[in-house]
Amino acid sequence: MPELSWRILLAVPPSLITGHSELSRVVNGCQSFEIALTPLREDLFTSFKESISRITKTWYRWQLLRTAVKAVEPDLCLVMYIDQLLLPLALGMDPGCNLSGIYFRPTFHYPRFAGYRPNLGDRVLALRQRVLVERAARSPRLRDLFCLDTFVPDVINASEPVKKALPLPEPVEPHKSNSVDEARLRRTLNLDEGRIVLLLFGMISERKGPHELLEACGILQSSVARKFSLVIAGKVEDQLSACLAHQVAAMQQTCPVQIILHDHLVAYDQVPPFFGISDVVLATYHRHVGMSAIIARSAAAGKPVLSSDFGLMGQLVRTWRLGLTIDSTNPAAIAQALTQIAEDGGPVPFDAESAARFAELNTAESFGATLFAPLLRFGEKET
Fold first, then answer.
1. Euclidean distance between CA atoms 230 and 200, whole angstroms
2. Contact indicator for 68, 38 with CB cutoff of 8 Å
3. 181-193: average pLDDT
4. pLDDT tens, position by position, 328-346
C-alpha cells in the first residue's frame, strides 16, 4: 500500500492567525504531517458574527465553507460543527468537496430517555431535526457524521441505507492531580476542613444554574448547610458577574454553607486540582443539549456528579451510574438532594468501576483515533 502524504489546512478566523500564539505553537510543533493555518474570508466572517437571524447565520456559514473550499481545493473537508450546515446539504446544495462533520446538538431522540417531557416547541424542533439529518445523510457529498451523543447514531442509521453516523468520544485528558497541588488550592480558596466540597466549574453562565443552586443552599436546614463548602470556579460571564457576586456576598453573611466564588479563568493545567479537592461535582445546567465535558471529566477524576435529569446528561448519569439526577431548575429539588448527601455522610450513589470505564471511552486519544480512522480509509480509497 503506498504511503499517504497528508496536508492539513485549518480554516480559522483571521484573528486566530495573528493573535493566538498557543494555536500557532501547536501547529508549528507538529511533526507527523504538514499542517498550516488558512484564514476565513474576513468580510464574510464579520457578517456572520453580526447577523442575528438563524437562517442568515446558516447562509454565511455555508458561504464561509464554500469560499474556503474553493481557495484550498481539499480532497476532504472536516466540519467541526456541522449542525447549522445540515439545511444546505438537505436542500441538495454542493459544498464543492466531500464532507465529514461533527453533529453536536441532536434532540430528536430525547423522547427515548427516561423522564423527558417535551413541550410543543420541543416536538417541532425534533421533527425539523429528524427531517434535516435524514435528508442531509442522503447527500453524496457527506461521508461521515460524527456524533458526540453516542445514543443517536443508531437512530440515524436505522432509517438510512448507508450508515454514515458514527459515535465520537468526548476528548478529555486523563485526570492528573496530586496532593501537593490540591493542598495548595485548598489554602488559596481558604476551604474549611471537614466539609463536603461541592464544585460548580467552567464558564459560569445563567444556564449552569448558579442562582438556583445558591437559593437551594439558602433553604437548607442549618445543621445540613454547615456540612458543605460550595466552590464556584471559572470565569463568570460579564452580564452575570456583578449580580452573582452580590448574591454570593449576601449569602455569605447569613448562610452556614461556606460559599467561595473564584471568578477567574482557570488555566488548563490548573483544572485537575479543582476536581481533586471536590467531593461532588455539580452539573446543574438548565436544559443542556448534547454532551458535557464536565460529566466526562468528573468520571476521569473518580468524582460523582449531581446532575440535571434533562436529556443526554441525565441519561449518561443514569446509564453509567455516575451520581444523582435532579430537576436542576427547582431549588427545592436541589436542596433535597444535598440533604440526602449530607445525611448519608458522603458522596452521592456512584459506581467507580463504571465511571472508570466511561472515562476510558472519552479521551483525547480515542477522540482523535475515531475522527481520523474514516479519513484514513478515505485517503486509501482515493490513492
1. 8
2. yes
3. 94
4. 999 999 999 999 999 875 5
Decide if 214 contacts 247 (C-beta within 8 A). Answer: yes
Whether 279 and 196 have beta carbons less than 8 Å apart is answered as yes
Is the pLDDT assigned to residue 245 strictly greater than 60?
A: yes
Give tens-digit pLDDT for 102-152.
999 999 999 999 878 889 999 999 999 999 999 999 999 999 999 999 999
Domains contained in the chain, CATH given: 7-171+363-382 (3.40.50), 179-361 (3.40.50.2000)
What is the distance between the alpha carbons of residues 77 and 9, in angstroms, rounded to a whole number? 9
Residue identified by cell 454553607 is 257
Do residues 277 and 258 touch, judged by C-beta distance below 8 A? no
According to DSSP H, which parts of the chain are helical? Answer: 14-19, 21-28, 42-50, 54-72, 86-90, 120-137, 153-158, 179-189, 210-218, 222-225, 238-254, 271-277, 293-301, 311-320, 331-343, 352-361, 364-382
Q: 267 near 289, Cβ under 8 Å?
A: no
Cα-based angle 200, 268, 258 (whole degrees, multiple of 5): 25
User: What count of Cα atoms within 13 Å lies in the side-chain half-sphere of residue 146?
Assistant: 23
**Helix-helix angle 352-361:311-320, to 10 degrees:** 130
37 with 17: CB under 8 angstroms? Answer: yes
Q: Specify which residues 325 forms β-bridges with.
A: 307
Strands (E) across 168-256 are located at 196-201, 228-233
Judge whether residue 162 has pLDDT over 90.
no
Alpha-carbon torsion (149, 153, 159, 163), positive or negative: positive
Region 58-77: mean pLDDT is: 93
The predicted structure's pLDDT at residue 382: 54
Question: Tell me, what's the pLDDT at 1?
Answer: 39
Q: How far, in whole angstroms, is CA 22 from its chain's centroid? A: 21
Residue closest to 323 by CA, chosen among 301, 331, 167, 332: 301
Place of cell 436542596: 335
Q: Beta strands 228-233 and 258-262: pairing type?
A: parallel
pLDDT digits (tens, 9 = 90+) for 278-310: 999 999 999 899 898 999 999 999 999 999 999
